[in-house]
Amino acid sequence: MVKHAHMYLSPEDKAAISAAIEAAELKTSGEIFVVVSQRTADYRWIMLFYGAVTAILVPLVLMALGLNPLTIGTMFTHWQAGGWNVGFGATPSDEAATGMIFILALQAILFMLVSALDLQSGIASKLTPAWIKRQQVHRAARDQFLAHGLHQTAGKTGVLIFVSLAEHQAEIIADKGIYTKVSRDAWREVIGKLVASAREQALARGLIAAIEDSATILSVHFPRQENDVDELPNKVIII
Prior knowledge:
Blueprint: H1 11-24, E1 31-37, H2 45-64, H3 69-77, E2 78-81, E3 84-87, H4 92-115, H5 123-127, H6 130-147, E4 158-164, E5 169-174, H7 176-179, H8 184-199, H9 203-221, E6 236-238
Parallel strand pairs: 1-4, 1-6
Antiparallel strand pairs: 2-3, 4-5
């Protein structure tokens, strides 16, 4: 997880990253590409989910603790006045219907109150489980891998370094030509250094280190050939 990552890459940072990619690809036939996303997904829908769950569970819990819709209906159809129990001619079915209307109104209110929490900035993201964020980041990284043509390199040697700032996560995706020869553990070490730098508010430094480490890994299995062609732009993409 990338915590407290610096949200801005200066022109100097971008130029340094581009230079690092160009220098790295002098060592390998692999194609290294960097994408930094400000935010991978909008998690406001999670509050709708929490609102629905709350609206369902709270009445169930209350009824399990002894709340009876029929009793609630009686409360609304009978009044105490001067020591007398005053009714309104309601039948048991009327009382039951009144009780159910109360339960439905309570559910609607609970749903709206919890769902409205997404109006507070950052609440939805904070309440989204980490595994959902990981899935969203992985999907976004995969989409960027395909969108920028990393899967179309001649030797299937495209490598994407993807960072999502709002989600505080980073990921590396390698094409199948690399995946068969380089273990996941090697990429975990690269990500580890990137994460450590991001935590220190040095995202650019972390990206440059990740680029250089990726080139070192790739050069072992995919050294640069004399006829190599630079197939992808050597720059960081900000989305």
